[in-house]
Write a structure and sequence with these properties.
It is a single chain. The protein has about 325 residues and is an alpha/beta fold. About 35% of the residues lie in helices and about 25% in strands. The chain has helices spanning about 10-20, 30-55, 120-140, 165-170, 180-185, 195-210, 215-220, 260-270, 280-285, 290-300; strands at about 1-5, 60-70, 75-85, 90-95, 100-105, 105-110, 115-120, 145-150, 160, 170-175, 245, 250, 255-260, 275-280, 305, 315. A six-stranded mixed beta sheet has the order 1-2-3-4-8-10, sandwiched between helices. A four-stranded mixed beta sheet has the order 7-6-5-9, with no helix packed on it. Strand 15 (about 305) and strand 16 (about 315) form a beta hairpin. The longest helix is centred in the N-terminal third of the chain and has 25 residues, at about 30-55.
Length: about 325
C-alpha cells in the first residue's frame, strides 16, 4: 500500500510560481523555464513509476515516494522505497531520453545533437543504499535485507549496458519490467526480518524524519525580490494584478470575478519567499486596502498563528491552499 503518496515536488511548484511572477522578458526567464522542464521530466518519470507500482497487491509492500532523510552531512533522497517484512527495495527513477550507454564509471546519453556524461546510476543507487543502512543503524532499526533497482521510465529510450557488466544487468530495467524484477527479488528473499509492529514503527519513523526539499528559489536564480510582480492573479486570464472591491476580486482585463483568487497569491508568497508571513507583509503582497480586510481573509484560512498582536506570524500548513 502507498504510505507516502507521490506529490508534485516543491521545487517544481516554486519554479512555476517564479515563472508566473516575473516579466516575460526577464533575463532569467529562459533559465527558469529550463529548470521547470527538467523538474517536470523527473516528475513525469515518477508518475510512470507510481503507475507500475499500483499493480502490486496492496498487502505486499509499504510504498514511500520521495523520502528525504537526514544524515550528519545533510540529507539523502530516495525516489521510491518498498518495505516488507523480508526486504527493503530502493528504486531510483530515470527519465532520460535517447541512447543511454551504461559503463562502470559513467553513463553516456546520446541524442540527435548532443552527447552528455553522467554519474553511473548503479554507483549512485549503491551510495543511497549505504546511506540508508547507516541511517537505520543510527536510528537503532533492526537489520533487514536491502536491494535496489535503477528504473528507466521513458519507453522510447535505448539502454545499452557494456558487456560483462553483470551488476548493471541485474539492477537496471525499464518501467514495464519493474514488477517482474520485484517479483524476482521477492523470490530470493523469503526470510522474515520484521514483524507487523516493526513495520509500523519504521513506517512512522520514515514519515517523521522525512524533510521535504525546499529551495531558496530567488537565490537559486539570482533574482532580486523587487523583480517579483506582486498582487493577485486572475484565475481566468492570468492578468496580474487584479483589483479587490466589495469582497470580490475583479479583473480589468477579462472582467472576470472571483471570491477566492487571493488563495493562489498567498500560495505563491509561500513558495517564493518563505512559509510564513505577517499580516502587513501579506497585505502589501495582495494589494489590499486595509488591515481590517486582511484580518477578515486570514480568519478564514487554515493557518497556524503565533502571537495575538499586529505582529502575529502566520505559518503555512499542509492543508493550505
Amino acid at each position: 500500500m502507498f504510505v507516502k503518496n507521490l506529490t508534485v515536488p516543491i521545487p517544481l511548484l516554486q519554479a512555476e510560481a517564479v515563472e508566473r511572477r516575473i516579466s516575460p522578458g526577464h533575463e532569467k526567464m529562459p533559465e527558469v523555464k529550463t529548470k521547470i522542464k527538467i523538474l517536470k521530466s523527473g516528475y513525469n518519470g515518477e508518475k510512470e513509476l507510481n503507475y507500475q507500482l499500483g499493480q502490486i497487491p496492496q498487502h505486499k509492500y509499504h510504498i514511500f515516494h520521495d523520502l528525504r532523510l537526514p544524515t550528519a552531512e545533510g540529507f539523502f533522497q530516495i525516489d521510491v522505497l518498498l518495505l516488507s517484512p523480508n526486504i527493503l527495495i530502493n528504486l531510483d527513477g530515470k527519465n532520460h531520453s535517447g541512447k543511454l550507454i551504461i559503463e562502470k564509471n559513467q553513463m553516456i546519453q546520446e541524442t540527435i545533437d548532443t552527447r552528455e556524461s553522467y554519474e553511473n546510476p548503479i554507483s549512485q543507487i549503491n551510495r543511497h543504499k549505504l546511506l540508508l543502512r547507516n541511517w537505520m543503524e543510527e536510528n537503532t532499526i533492526p537489520p533487514i535485507n536491502m536491494d535496489n533497482l535503477v528504473v528507466f521510465t521513458r519507453s522510447s529510450s535505448e539502454i545499452i549496458i557494456t558487456p560483462s557488466y553483470n551488476e548493471a544487468e541485474n539492477k537496471v530495467c525499464k518501467s514495464h519490467d519493474l514488477i517482474k524484477k520485484i517479483e524476482k527479488i521477492d523470490r530470493y528473499n523469503k526470510k522474515g526480518w520484521m514483524n507487523d509492529l516493526d513495520i509500523l514503527k519504521l513506517s512512522d519513523l520514515f514519515l517523521k524524519k522525512h524533510t521535504p526539499k525546499r529551495e531558496d528559489i530567488l537565490k537559486l536564480f539570482q533574482i532580486p525580490d523587487r523583480d517579483i510582480i506582486t498582487g493577485v492573479q486572475c484565475p481566468t486570464c492570468s492578468f496580474l494584478p487584479i483589483i479587490y472591491n466589495r469582497q470580490k476580486w475583479m479583473c480589468p482585463s477579462c472582467k472576470g470575478v472571483s471570491k477566492d483568487a487571493h488563495l493562489g497569491a498567498i500560495n505563491d508568497f509561500f513558495l517564493i519567499f518563505k512559509p510564513w508571513f505577517t499580516s502587513s507583509e501579506i497585505r502589501q503582497f495582495l494589494h489590499l486596502p486595509s488591515p481590517r480586510i486582511v484580518s477578515y481573509f486570514l480568519s478564514l484560512l487554515h493557518l497556524n498563528r503565533a502571537g495575538h498582536t499586529s505582529d502575529s506570524v502566520y505559518h503555512q500548513t499542509k492543508h493550505f491552499p
